[in-house]
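Propose amino acids for all 309 sites.
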């Protein structure tokens, strides 16, 4: 049996229908499963409850409902040898890249200024920004970061990236480690966050990091809200250290109506929509892992739990 839990109602229904069509012999339930929980072999979830994971003694793996696995790894007392797998989805990657490229171009072409001018019926042309002064730095060069970098390079932006360990991406100036992070920040007029949320990256974008950016830099975060210290971002916006921010993810979601981001003139908000899992392309991966687990074969897209991704 495969149990679906810890996801939005509509996505749960979509996954159930698609999985039933892909694997008609697989019993699928919407959790929690009370009757004979030992039947549950597989779980698909964004953020399962600790008591629910513990309820199923015969779990073979938990699959994340998307690319990130922080909602699963936060579960207390997660069995240490329980495999965690994630979805590596070309459509999810494509959608994320579209969001990043749009946000970069929106800032680069000063669209926020023109939107405001239109509301005032004010004809106010600005000198175009030089692309040489719009250097893009990407935190994280995994599947999402590497694809975004490739598309921005095609638009002739200067692109650098940072990872914990050395990595090479053609055309991208690649940095790693603490010294590399400092170098990336110093050369980033636009900073894009595409890191996974781990113990090491929690609150990474704080006052110290923001101060290392060139004055007037622009922040884009479609990854995880937990990467960002909200108070530090607001202070940087108010001081002019940041000229603006495009934020799709937040420490609390939905973003509370009284949060300062809503009314801040330098912030562009979207409701965690940059890239959502495409069920049609995700289900074959999940089905393949069910087959592999039952055959005793290595799983695809298995997470390194020590690294957090």
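Proposal:
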């Amino acid at each position: 049996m495969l149990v679906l839990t810890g996801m939005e109602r509509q996505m749960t229904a979509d996954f159930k229908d698609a999985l039933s069509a892909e694997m008609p012999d697989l019993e699928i339930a919407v959790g929690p499963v009370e009757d004979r929980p030992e039947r549950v072999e597989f779980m698909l979830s964004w953020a399962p409850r600790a008591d629910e994971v513990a309820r199923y003694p015969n779990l073979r793996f938990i699959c994340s409902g998307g690319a990130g696995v922080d909602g699963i790894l936060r579960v207390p007392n997660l069995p240490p040898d329980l495999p965690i797998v994630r979805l590596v989805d070309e459509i999810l990657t494509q959608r994320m890249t579209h969001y990043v490229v749009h946000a970069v171009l929106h800032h680069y072409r000063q669209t926020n200024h023109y939107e405001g001018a239109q509301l005032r019926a004010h004809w106010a042309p600005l000198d175009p920004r030089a692309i040489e002064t719009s250097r893009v730095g990407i935190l994280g060069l995994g599947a999402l970061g590497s694809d975004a970098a490739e598309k921005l390079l095609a638009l002739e932006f200067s692109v650098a990236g940072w990872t914990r360990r050395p990595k090479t991406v053609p055309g991208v100036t690649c940095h790693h480690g603490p010294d590399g992070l400092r170098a990336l920040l110093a050369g980033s007029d636009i900073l894009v966050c595409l890191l996974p949320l781990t113990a090491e990256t929690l609150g990474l974008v704080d006052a110290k990091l923001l101060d290392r950016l060139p004055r007037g830099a622009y922040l884009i975060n479609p990854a995880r809200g937990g990467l960002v210290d909200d108070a530090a971002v607001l202070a940087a916006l108010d001081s002019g250290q940041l000229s603006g921010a495009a934020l799709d993810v937040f420490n609390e979601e939905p973003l509370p109506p009284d949060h300062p981001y809503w009314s801040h003139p330098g912030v562009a908000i979207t409701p965690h929509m940059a890239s959502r899992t495409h069920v049609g392309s995700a289900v074959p991966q999940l089905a393949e892992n069910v087959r592999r687990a039952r055959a005793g074969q290595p799983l695809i897209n298995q997470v390194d739990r020590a690294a957090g991704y």
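The chain has a mean pLDDT of 96. The radius of gyration is 21 Å.
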